[in-house]
Amino acid sequence: MEHILKYFPNLSDKQKEQFAALYDLYLDWNSKINVISRKDIENLYLHHVLHSLGIAKMINFRDGTTVMDFGCGGGFPGVPLAILFPEVKFHLVDSIGKKVRVAREISEAIGLKNITFAHSRGEEIKEKFNFVVSRAVMPLPDVVKICRKNIDKDQKNALPNGIICLKGGELQEEIRPFKNCVDMIDLHNYFEDEFFKKKKVVYVPIN
């Protein structure tokens, strides 16, 4: 939890309580349904929660923004972002029902009101959103191909509507098709921990 407070010191008491509750909830659910590597659960805040919040270094979502989390797994990045942005509407989508169940149960346990869920493949989602976020689900061109249809034309933020992905490693080939419009930030410039050495946030505007 100290990792979250270090980089996001202006949280409300409610947000602090919600973030603090995540560890025991994920520990309990992970023992029943494996959504995080058993070896990695002790690094929940650094490797999963703080990593998810890296998207907030690319954009500070305005109130009323709509966001789809494509391939949410057990709730990342959607659940941490929904805590950080309580006036933004998040829709979490995954094709694996038991993972969606974990994300839903944890969201209900901490009282999130700005979050909905769908056990569905991204190709089947027809609704429109200002942004689609994703965390290392598949190569960027594939995410764009599937989710382009879900980007709304109604703009609410300084950053034009588009797709924002958390990525790691070498990305030159992935971003090549978008090289004229892609924007990318290095999370190690914001989070000094070794884990973020090669972690990036990649943004592709969708016209």
What's the SSE blueprint?
Elements lengths: L1 H6 L5 H20 L11 H10 L12 E5 L7 H7 L4 E6 L2 H13 L5 E5 L11 E5 L4 H8 L14 E7 L3 H4 L7 E4 L12 E7 L2
Parallel strand pairs: 1-2, 1-4, 2-3, 4-5
Antiparallel strand pairs: 5-7, 6-7
Helix pairs in contact: 3-4
Report on this model:
With 207 residues, the chain is α/β, with parallel strands linked by helices. The chain has helices spanning 2-7, 13-32, 44-53, 78-84, 97-109, 140-147, 172-175, and strands spanning 66-70, 89-94, 115-119, 131-135, 162-168, 183-186, 199-205. The chain has a seven-stranded mixed beta sheet with strand order 3-2-1-4-5-7-6, with helices on both faces. Helix 4 (78-84) links the parallel strand 1 (66-70) and strand 2. The longest helix has 20 residues, at 13-32.
Supply Rg: 16 Å
User: Strand-residue fraction?
Assistant: 15-25%
Distinct helical segment count: 7
Strand order of the largest sheet: 3-2-1-4-5-7-6
What value does the average pLDDT take? 96
Major sheet description:
7 strands, mixed
User: Segments where pLDDT lies below 50 for 5+ residues?
Assistant: none
Helix content: 25-40%
The end-to-end span amounts to 38 Å
Order of helices and strands: HHHEHEHEEHEHEE
Q: What is the total tally of β strands? A: 7
Shape: globular
Q: SS-based structural class?
A: alpha/beta
